[in-house]
Amino acid sequence: MTSNDSNARTGAPGPGAPETVPTGPGDARITWYHAPHPALTLAVSHGAGGGIGARDLQALAATLPPNGVTVALVEQPWRVAGKKLAPAPKTLDAGWRDLWPALTTPGLPVIAGGRSAGARVACRTAHDLGAHAVLALAFPLHPPGRPDRSRAGELLGARVPTLVVQGGNDPFGHPEEFPDGAHELVPVPSADHSFAVPKRAPVTQDETLLTLTDAVVEWTARLR
Questions:
Q1: Of 75, 21, 85, whose CA–CA distance to 48 is shortest?
Q2: I need a labelling partner for 186 at 20 to 30 A (CA). Which of 10, 114, 139, 222 fits?
């Protein structure tokens, strides 16, 4: 299902023209999906292995605007530059900090979000930037097969309301591996790190994305 198909089903407007934002590490790019009557902005970026075409990001861009949340899909500078590998965390954080003023321009409370590596950036910078909350999609709690290399400190250090949406079969951290904390966690049964489900799964791909979007819609409603 394409983003345009999703928009047609939900009544969401299509994206505006991408906005280029200069940052220290290079130009970033924001694609806005404006809510007709916005109460919040969700600024959400991609992971180290993909872009804003990821199924979860596109599902949120189609679903949230009719529910009062403007969505800003952020392409990080390394991705805009056509590079295949993400830079070091310090550089990722610097780019996110530099583009933050553009995300706050509409004057709405901003939820910092991301999937995978983008979720780590959001958690690390949320408090200092004054983020309203954090949405962590497929948070990479540890490298696959290396639970001893936990990144739980980043998640626990966000210090703002945080929602984690995690695939039940995510090799970067199963839901039951997450530590107790102030964050909320929504498990997505049978889903992997990309929220894909195998054909033999008891749920369909569409049902899986609905679990994700329903959880985010309900959570953002409580943040207002």
A1: 85
A2: 10
